[in-house]
Design brief:
single chain, 180 residues, mainly alpha, Multidrug-efflux Transporter Regulator, Chain: A, Domain 2, three-stranded antiparallel beta sheet, 6 helices, 64% helix
Amino acid sequence: MNKEKISSVAKKLGISTQAVYKKLAKIGDQVGSHLIKENGVTYLTDEGVDILRSTLQVRQPEPASPVGNLVETLQKSLGDKQALIDKQQALIDQLVRNQTEERQRSDTIIMKLSNDLGNMRTLLEENNKAKILLTQNLKPTKQVKPWEAPKVKDPLENKTWLQKMWIKYFEPWKMRNQAY
């Protein structure tokens, strides 16, 4: 009578240890006599493993040769790694395309700014030439004298006080500084 730990039975059946314990709790009457507990460790006999396997309807793994199993494992690992490499290559290609687009945008912006700078230089040079031409062709202007009223003698001079009053109130136009 061989006995196995529950953890090794779980590995053999390809399920978790918790799943084995749950299944044993459900079918406890059928395998009760095949469970052995020693020092806090639960063991299951060969007949108990067969009963558990039949209730789980788990296929018994086929015994495989170590070389064939190794080849299959390596081929699967190779396939997984090739898929990972393909995904990474696709990501790299996408990043390269994005970088190329960004580079083209940057080049376009730089070209536009260069053209604008050239146009601005041309305008400044033309403006400086115009200033130079204006300063060379200008002659000094003649000084303009402000207008001064001609000096005429006072129209009220040598008049009597009654005449002065008459002119001030009734003929004020005669007091203007103009020649009569």
